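To: structure desk
From: M.T.
Subject: fold request, one chain
Message: Could you run this one when you get a chance? Sequence is below, nothing fancy, just the single chain.
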Amino acid sequence: MKKVKITKLIAMYEDARGKNYAFSTRPTKDFLFVTRKKGTISGEHYHQGKSKQKDPETLILIKGKFKLECQNLKTGEKLKTIIEAPTKLELGTNIWHKVTALTDIIFLETNSLTQHIKDTVQLPETKL
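Reply: Done. Structure tokens follow.
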């Protein structure tokens, strides 16, 4: 789907202590560290790009698995997929998205809470 990019993170190094992963993102000084419990729903919104940190919105799934549902509000194109850690997810502007935690999850958002609030338009799935 255009404006949605899913990148599975590949371990660049592994030893008895664990694994190292690397990823790139645009410069930012603010991050949100987010936890969600299994069975909870988040999102049901989209971003307009008013904040440069939301164009695209970037999430780094650190732990767990969730179901991602998206719809491009300009074209109507839809996507449903399962995302498993470790993965980087980029969602462009006007991509409505909903996350259902299939396990307990932990992810980073590459923006501040202020940036998130400034550029979030709530839209329940029933209104699509």
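Reply (cont.): The chain has one domain: 4-11+29-127. Let me know if you need anything else for the meeting.
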